Amino acid sequence: MDRETKLKKLHFRAWHRGTREADMLIGGYFDHHSGTWTTQDIDWFGKLLECDDVDVMAWAIGTLPVPVEFAGSQMDAMQLLDYIDLPSGTSS
């Protein structure tokens, strides 16, 4: 599968997780970072999408330790949470 097709599929999966919170966290991360991803980064994200949303969210907010296979610069960037656009009318 070519890079563009793979990214389109990952985009859909990132934004259709099942809960608004997971969509914002995982989809927002994809939108903010995917433009600069290497093939290895794309593969990492694809594997991350196979995990349960509650686990991914817990790793991102630091309530569960990050498994070795997901630790590194991409998870560090996900944990910043600076890529999430809050809906208008929401305060932080």
Quick structural gist:
The protein is mostly helical.
Number of separate structural domains: 1
Question: What would you call the quaternary organization?
Answer: single chain
Q: So what's the overall shape?
A: globular
What's the CATH architecture name? Orthogonal Bundle
The level-1 CATH class: Mainly Alpha
Remind me, CATH topology?
A: DNA polymerase, domain 1
Q: What pattern of helices and strands is seen along the backbone?
A: HHHHH
Q: What class do helices, strands and sheet pairing give?
A: mainly alpha
SS strand fraction: under 5%
Overall pLDDT level: 93
Q: What's the total number of strands? A: 0
Q: What radius of gyration results from the CA coordinates?
A: 13 Å
Major sheet: size, sense and barrel closure? none
Helix content: 55-70%
| N→C terminal distance | 40 Å
Quickly count the helices: 5
- So, the CATH homologous superfamily? Flavinator of succinate dehydrogenase
Low-confidence parts = none
Could you please describe the fold and organization of this structure?
- This protein has 92 residues and is mostly helical.
- It has one domain: DNA polymerase, domain 1.
- The radius of gyration is 13 Å and the shape is globular.
- The termini are far apart.
- The model has no long low-confidence stretch (mean pLDDT 93).
